[in-house]
Amino acid sequence: MHLDDQDILTLFTTKGKEQIAFGHLVNKYQERVYWHIRKMVINHEDANDVTQNTFIKVWKGLPKFKKEANLFTWMYRIATNETLNFIKANKRRVAQSIEDIQIENRKDDSFFSGEEIEAKLYKAIGTLPDKQKLVFNMKYFEELKYREIAEILGGSVGSLKASYHHAQKKIEAHLTNND
Amino acid sequence: MKTTNEHMENEFPTLEKLKTVKGMKTPQGFFDSLSTSIMEQTVEQPKQKKISIYRVFAYAASIAIVVGISSTFFFGSDTQSTPELFGEMTVNEYLEDFSEIDLELEDALQFDEIAMN
User: Fold this and answer.
1) Which alpha helices (H) appear in A3-100, and where do they start and end?
2) What is the pTM of this model?
3) CB contact (8 A) between residue B34 and residue A140
4) Which of A68, A96, A99, A79 is nearest to A38 (CA)?
5) What is the pLDDT of residues A23-71, one digit of tens each?
């Protein structure tokens, strides 16, 4: 059973309870944050590193966090920035990770399983520009509302809808054309 | 009116079919170790005192300055006066000076004797 965000924040402001509060926060959000990052960087080890960096930044930033803001949105924004910085600094590595998604022998891959079409899906997502990829992942996999995506990434709901639609089109085309 | 899902099914059938897939996976027990690893990094490590080379240099320099100033203060007057009084004076000059004093003294005594008589 996870604590409410507000309860976590209240606990965090209690002297001597900071770590307990942060432990609740990590347990509540680590999987979502990890998968958000993993869908972007693809490689598990990279996602692990970026996730850890994200939570350390959250830990350092929490004392300054304003209670009125949305904790989840704020954390997602940090995760997104960390991910984009990682991708920027490791372009080749990320491109290679996308390339390495095994289509043949995928069952031997300890970090990827499933049908060939699934591997194709990730490869197709990999061809999208970073911002469009983020919008697509957040809507398609994480099922966030456009309003939430707008809070995390910035921009208007209308432009995000358009971006998602374009992404769907491209991926669908990629999937059907490469059969 | 079409719902978003119906719209997606019609326009993007392959994507709709794949919506539930989770092709990526993580090692077993990964999230347990992840939270442990994150929490370990939040524990403040006791700060080890690192001796900076610059700090050592600064201490050494300040000690040298203090020693320099204090040695000037304690020994400065002697070292300055010595050459002026004795250092540049030869032994002969020294003896001549004292012999002149003796002569003057002798002259004075002789003058006194004359006056007495």
Assistant:
1) 5-12, 18-41, 44-61, 71-89, 91-100
2) 0.68
3) no
4) A79
5) 999 999 999 999 999 999 989 999 999 999 999 999 999 999 887 778 9
* Contact at CB, A111 and B41, closer than 8 angstroms: no
Cα angle value B86/B90/B92 (rounded, 5°): 125
- Cα separation, A75 vs A80, in Å, equals 9
Take residue A152 and report the two structure tokens written for it.
């995390």
- The complex scores an ipTM of 0.81
Token duo for residue B25: 């996976």
Backbone Cα Rg of chain B: 50
Distances (CA, A) of B115 to A161, B52, B105: 134, 84, 15
Q: What is the 3-state secondary structure (H, E, C) of A84-115?
A: HHHHHHCHHHHHHHHHHCCCCCHHHCCCECCC
Chain A residues whose beta carbon lies within 8 Å of the beta carbon of residue B11: 168, 172
Provide the 10 A C-beta neighbour count for residue A103. 13
Going A25 to A30 to A35 to A40, the CA torsion angle's sign is positive
Q: Which long-range contacts (CB under 8 A, 24 or more apart) does A84-91 make?
A: A84/A130, A86/A41, A86/A46, A86/A49, A86/A50, A87/A40, A87/A41, A87/A130, A90/A46
DSSP SS3 for B24: strand
Q: Which of B17, B28, B34 to mutate to test the interface with A (most CBs of A within 10 A)?
A: B34
Residues B31-90: tens digit of each pLDDT: 999 999 999 998 876 656 666 777 777 888 888 888 888 887 777 655 554 555 555 666
